[in-house]
From TrEMBL:
Gene expressing this chain: CycK
Listed name of the protein: CycK-related cyclin family protein
Keyword annotations of the record: Cyclin
Signal peptide as annotated in the record: none
Organism for this UniProt entry: Ostreococcus lucimarinus (strain CCE9901)
Pfam families in the record: Cyclin_N (PF00134), CycT2-like_C (PF21797)
Biological processes, Gene Ontology terms: regulation of transcription by RNA polymerase II
One term of GO molecular function: cyclin-dependent protein serine/threonine kinase regulator activity
Lineage of source species: Eukaryota, Viridiplantae, Chlorophyta, Mamiellophyceae, Mamiellales
Length: 245
């Protein structure tokens, strides 16, 4: 790989981590559901990975805010633009003097709200008004249910397996996997990875995946991408870890 290609790839990865971290913080401050954070992350991936030209028009955090704004409407968990603008500004200006921030709040918020709305319009056109996003969460629960029904794991082990798989699914959002694989393949992969992580807690039969139609080759590829992420950043989840949220 040439140095220029490697540099561009590194810059793209660094930007992805920035907007994922931003979405996690903003989402938690605004108390939006994990599904909304996940949808916003997919919108960001689609925009920044597929539209490098328009990506330069807005700051990363501004476009991430627009993605969160749109995701809230798509997932029927909308947040007022005022709240989004305030949270976005505070996260972007953590080091600012709170007194100065408060004194210029109205002017800053009017400008930022207009910028977020412009970013949303660009985002809408880039997405082609296609807001359909399928996440791996329900699929991974289905895989685990099939494993239980096939007698591969005990009932008391399903919650632990589901929780670890869910965490891996959250972490996968920090990569571009959602652009490259189906939600079902990612779901199978995170369950497959979770079984390795939990191998000391319960033992599965050899080639257990055949009983529940899990593709081990694709699961290995996806799982290795998630593990590569940990080598670079450590296990930092995008969103909430509890499957009940």
């Amino acid at each position: 790989m040439s140095s220029s290609i490697r540099t561009a790839k590194d810059a793209s990865t660094e930007r992805r981590w920035r907007y994922c971290d931003f979405l996690k913080e903003a989402g938690m401050k605004l108390k939006v559901p994990q599904l909304t954070i996940a949808t916003a992350a997919v919108f960001c991936h689609r925009f920044f990975e597929l539209d490098s030209q328009n990506a330069q028009q807005f700051e990363t955090a501004v476009m991430a805010t627009a993605c969160l704004f749109l995701a809230g409407k798509v997932e029927e968990t909308p947040k007022p633009l005022n709240d989004l603008a305030r949270t976005s500004h505070l996260l972007q200006r953590k080091a600012s003097d709170p007194t100065r921030l408060e004194s210029s709040q109205q002017e800053l918020h009017v400008e930022l709200k207009e910028t977020i709305l412009r970013a949303e319009r660009v985002l809408l056109h880039r997405l082609g008004f296609d807001f359909n996003v399928e996440h791996p969460y329900k699929h991974l629960l289905s895989v685990i249910k099939r494993m239980s029904q096939a007698g591969l794991i005990e009932e008391e082990s399903t919650k632990t397996l589901a929780q670890v798989s869910w965490n891996f699914a959250n972490d996968s959002l920090r990569t571009s996997l959602c652009l490259e694989y189906s939600a079902n393949h990612i779901a199978e992969a995170v369950v497959y990875l979770a079984t390795k992580f939990l191998s000391s807690k319960f033992e599965l039969p050899k080639k257990w995946w055949e009983a529940v139609n899990v593709d081990p080759e694709i699961s290995e590829l996806i799982g290795n991408r998630i593990l590569d992420l940990y080598e670079q950043t450590g296990p930092v989840e995008l969103g909430y870890s509890d499957i009940s949220t």
